[in-house]
Structure formats: structure tokens, C-alpha cells
Design goal:
Elements: H1 5-29, H2 36-61, H3 63-68, H4 70-91, H5 97-104, H6 107-119, H7 125-142, H8 147-151, H9 157-178, H10 185-211, H11 218-227, H12 230-246, H13 248-253, H14 257-270, H15 276-293, H16 297-305
Helix pairs in contact: 1-12, 1-14, 2-4, 2-10, 2-11, 4-9, 4-10, 5-9, 6-9, 7-15
């Protein structure tokens, strides 16, 4: 039995959040060895190089569509490749890991808000239920089921950068649905990466002039190879497919899996242990995703009528 497009989209979103959890850990682990603009630039320069042959073919094949919608394509490249991770890496220099994860957990809420403002779509009851359950699960993990941890957090300018970063990605996700370009996902991804990477270059050059570069150690090279493949190309392709298939509201909820996967990855990588609050939070997140991924009755009826 072949999996449906919804099942493939859900599986892709799960893998996306797993790769992004690894990206967060790599960014945190290299914060002192690779400056933020350098990490962001090379994260995208690496796939630009190995996707260049496909990019040229994509531009030539879909040049009329791309030229006719060039302001939209530029905006999508800016909010996704140019801005999102660049601002996130910059925020990581001045705020703590818990703050980053906590602010990142507002991404689904941001996507729901932008969807209401731009797409004029409101979440159905199961989506709202899933949103609340998953958010409670994330809070359980981040605070270690201790309310004092949440109340004791100090917020700083880096957290404002995180809000800007999450808003950029939420806006990109909604605009991707708002502007349904006829360019297939992979060629569109190649074009966005090629257009978005030069947007980071001036900031990277300023950083090199101001702070210098970074050592080409084995650890740094492996980190760059990782962020330049799985969290970038693979994750972005699967995220775009999830948005097109499930809509930005449902796709955004899968961001709640990032702290769950980050905790699981930290066990073998950092020698941490699984605690009861990890399990409790993970169950709430999964329950929320199951609830939110269920189609509303109207969607189910419409799907049967179109068969």
C-alpha cells in the first residue's frame, strides 16, 4: 500500500524538525569557534555550489514564471535563506539556549497569526487543541516541569532578535502558500538558495573585517558540511512540501518537535539522561501533533467528493 501525500508530508516534517534540532545543537556547539554570519553564509554557500547545475537548468526552464513573479521570489529568498537563520545565529550570541527554544516555540502561533491576516484562514478546533497540547509539552521540557524555571528567565535583546527570526520564517511559510508558484519544489528551492546567499555576503564580509575568520578544523568543517546539507537543502525541501500539502498552520505545529529531538540527541552527544519531564513533554507534543494533523470534517468531506 502506497503512502498518501499527507503521510509523506507528515513524515517529511518530522525529519525536518529532527535535522533542525541537530542544527540548533551544532550552532550552540560552534558559537565560540564559528562567528554567526560565517555560519549562516557557509550554511548556504555550500549547497549553492553543489546545486548550481540544477539552479541554472531551473532558471532556464522556468525563467518566464520566475521573471513574471520576481518580487515574490526575491521576498521568499529573503525571509527564508537570507534572514531566518542569520538572525537566529546572531541571537544565539547573546541569549541562552532555553530562551532560544522558548521563543522558537512561538513559531506555530506566529504562523497561525500570519495565516489569519494574510490567508484569511483560521485553525479548526482540532488544530487549536493540538496547538495548546504541544505548547504545554514544550514548556514541560524547557522548564523541566518546574514553574520557577519559567518565572526566573531573564529576557534580553537577543530574545528580540529571536522573535524577529521566527517572524521571518512564519511569514515565509505563509507567503509560500499565498503565492502558489507553478515552479516545482526542488527547482524553486535551488533558486531561493542562489538568490538568498548573496544577501548574507555583505554581513559576512563585515564580520571577517571586524572579527576575522575561523579555523578550518575538522570539527568546524564537519559542522559546516552538516548544516549545508541536511538542515538546509533536505529540511527546506520537506518543509516546503509540508506547507503545500498540509498548509502552513499544520506544518508549523511540527516545530514543537525540535526541543523533543534536541533532548534526545543530547543524550548520546552530550551524555545527558532522559528524565520524566522529557517523557511527559514528548507525549504532550505528540498528542498535539496527532490532533492537529487530523483533517477537519469539512476537509474530509471535500476530499471524498473530489475523488
Amino acid at each position: 500500500m502506497q503512502p498518501s501525500s499527507r503521510q509523506l508530508a507528515i513524515a517529511g516534517l518530522v525529519m525536518t524538525t529532527f535535522f533542525w534540532a541537530g542544527n540548533a545543537l551544532v550552532a550552540r556547539g560552534t558559537s565560540e569557534s564559528i562567528p554567526p554570519f560565517a555560519l549562516s553564509f557557509w550554511r548556504w554557500m555550500i549547497p549553492t555550489v553543489y546545486l548550481l547545475p540544477f539552479t541554472i537548468q531551473a532558471v532556464l526552464r522556468y525563467r518566464q514564471e520566475l521573471l513574471a513573479n520576481w518580487p515574490k521570489v526575491i521576498a521568499l529568498a529573503f525571509f527564508s535563506v537570507g534572514a531566518y537563520n542569520t538572525i537566529l545565529y546572531l541571537a544565539a550570541q547573546s541569549t541562552g539556549a532555553i530562551n532560544i527554544a522558548l521563543v522558537s516555540s512561538t513559531m506555530p502561533l506566529m504562523i497561525v497569526l500570519f495565516s489569519a491576516l494574510i490567508l484569511r484562514t483560521l485553525p479548526h478546533r482540532m488544530q487549536l487543541t493540538g496547538l495548546i497540547l504541544a505548547f504545554c509539552g514544550v514548556l514541560t521540557i524547557l522548564t523541566r516541569a518546574n514553574l520557577d524555571t519559567l518565572l526566573g528567565l531573564d529576557f534580553n535583546p537577543g530574545d528580540l532578535l529571536m522573535i524577529l527570526s521566527i517572524s521571518s520564517w512564519a511569514l515565509y511559510s505563509v507567503l509560500l502558500k499565498r503565492w502558489p508558484l507553478s515552479v516545482p519544489l526542488f527547482p524553486l528551492l535551488c533558486v531561493l538558495i542562489t538568490l538568498g546567499t548573496p544577501m548574507i555576503l555583505p554581513f559576512y564580509l563585515w564580520e571577517v573585517h571586524d572579527k576575522g575568520g575561523f579555523a578550518l578544523s575538522t570539527g568546524n568543517l564537519l559542522a559546516l558540511l552538516y548544516v549545508g546539507t541536511l538542515p538546509s537543502v533536505a529540511a527546506y525541501f520537506m518543509w516546503n512540501n509540508g506547507v503545500r500539502t498540509l498548509g502552513p498552520g499544520v506544518a508549523g505545529l511540527f516545530a514543537y518537535l525540535i526541543p523533543v529531538f534536541a533532548a534526545l540527541i543530547a543524550v548520546p552527544a552530550l551524555g545527558e539522561s532522559i528524565e520524566s519531564y522529557h517523557l511527559a513533554g514528548g507525549v504532550l507534543v505528540l498528542a498535539g501533533l496527532v490532533a492537529a494533523s487530523r483533517r477537519s470534517r469539512t476537509e474530509a468531506v471535500a476530499d471524498r467528493l473530489t475523488r
